[in-house]
């Protein structure tokens, strides 16, 4: 005999009115005795006339008649063979308005807002920024929206995700998508916005990405947040400027505090009822959408053949960043690499205590394994090595005992893309680089008759060109490379691009005596296009006032080329004259917007360049970046050591800028 009863059922800290249907009246008799008892019976739970759970058994249940209105309360303390995620959990939440006051300095940099964790954990600090972002987007675009909320998994991310979920619900967002365990690489977020379709047909309209990119993580280190738009790219300056203005005047924020924390460790949908209707949180697999996109771009079978060759060895270092969530799926499961070829591929909140910046200074384990360390190892290095940063948008490419500069890397990818990468088989629309990046890409563009653009630092400038169909491949000297498949730089994409070039160059040679190597490809490129000797000096955590004084001095100095050249010749008589000095200014060819004060340039008669720029990616103090470049067309002179070739220009740069006088630094923090 079927029995129906109206109950209040407790789960996820909420009390829910349901109908329970069972086949055995004894079940209710067991409850009414108030005893805990294991029992099994076919059952159906109904909520709003929807069957939530069919079949299975409850274990250790207690009947409680003390609930008001004569309804019984069934407190489930354990599920047997039933996952709580089978419930489409619904509860009615309330929206609270919380009074607040502004915090100074919540100005987003080129990649969002980055501060120390101790700053973000202050009461209302994160909430102020999130509400200021919602207000900048306007309620018309926020209500009913689908937002992605995830990041690189650094310390404080899990707490921040729960806060943003509750604020999204309160601001009328329809659904939030979260990568499992809160993990999504920055490029994967862009891919999810552009490619993923929810079970109900929904598409994402934007994203909060929780990352401080290549900065360290942990309780005493850095945290960050940035907003990406519906095209998958970072918010443009018009939006980030509005966000900053809002942070200076904010008086309240909205939050639904009674929504319980969502379990982001398991995939599934949690649904809640609010004043404006249903609100869903969809926790989904972090890698599937991104892997699918990569397989549509590259010839995985050709790469698999390369990786299966006994002559080809491979090493990938995620530096304990979010790239680890993708490395095993792509390189091992899809491409057949040995699991032992993966280094530091378990994501950690503090990146294993390291600095997740893929360069020769911080990727020490990979650098040593590739034969580029200070001590010589008897073990033969792999043929190819690569590393990622914290959020997996940056990359470093290495050959056996050979470093590929990011500026050369993007130029080489562009030069080989049409032949080696199926996605580009019909040709390139154009190429672009950031202003501080070397002119290696310019030479390729001229040689291949491609459209070329020089933009300020910041991926959003590339995104505008891509949205207008003007650019296919782009890159930055700061280890960022990408294409128009998404609107962020993409570290794993760059690794797959290089593996594709190697696979293409070796497709008829896998059984030969010697494979074409990374070094072979780079040296052949120099022989064809010339070499841009290039280095970058980073002076990190410089006193902000001193950094601004140095930049102001250089701007003032630019008014007199005679004075500049007197300093140049006084430092090194063998360096050519400066013929132009300016502050880089960019007019966007798509929307006509103008970006000023984008870096101080000294351009020399022989094509050499010095560039000085303050970085917007640090969380404390200031970082002065000094870029030094010299072009060499003579193929007999392209094999020199980079630091040796650039030594005269380095000497001039330090003398010209009075670097030690202004900063007190006798040497840079990092040389790339």
Explain what this protein looks like in three dimensions.
This protein has 672 residues and is α+β, with helices and mostly antiparallel strands. 31% of the residues lie in helices and 26% in strands. The chain has 20 helices and 32 strands. A seven-stranded mixed β-sheet has the order 8-12-11-9-10-15-14, sandwiched between helices. The longest helix has 16 residues, at 642-657. The chain is globular, with a radius of gyration of 28 Å. The termini are far apart.
Which short descriptors sum up this protein?
672 residues, alpha+beta, seven-stranded mixed beta sheet, six-stranded mixed beta sheet, 20 helices, disordered N terminus
Task: Give the topology, please.
Elements: E1 3-11, E2 14-22, H1 26-32, E3 43-47, E4 50-54, E5 57-64, E6 72-80, E7 96-99, E8 113-116, H2 117-120, H3 125-137, H4 139-142, E9 146-151, H5 157-170, E10 175-179, H6 186-195, E11 206-210, E12 222-228, H7 237-247, E13 252-255, E14 268-274, E15 277-284, H8 288-297, H9 300-308, E16 314-317, H10 324-334, E17 342-343, H11 364-369, E18 384-388, E19 395-399, E20 402-404, H12 406-420, E21 431-434, H13 440-448, E22 452-455, H14 459-467, E23 473-476, E24 480-483, H15 491-505, H16 518-529, E25 531-542, H17 544-557, H18 561-571, E26 578-583, E27 586-587, E28 594-595, E29 600-604, E30 609-615, E31 622-632, H19 642-657, H20 659-663, E32 670-671
Parallel strand pairs: 1-6, 9-10, 9-11, 10-15, 16-17, 16-18, 21-22, 21-23
Antiparallel strand pairs: 1-2, 2-3, 3-4, 5-6, 7-13, 8-12, 11-12, 14-15, 18-19, 19-20, 23-24, 25-31, 25-32, 26-29, 27-28, 29-30, 30-31
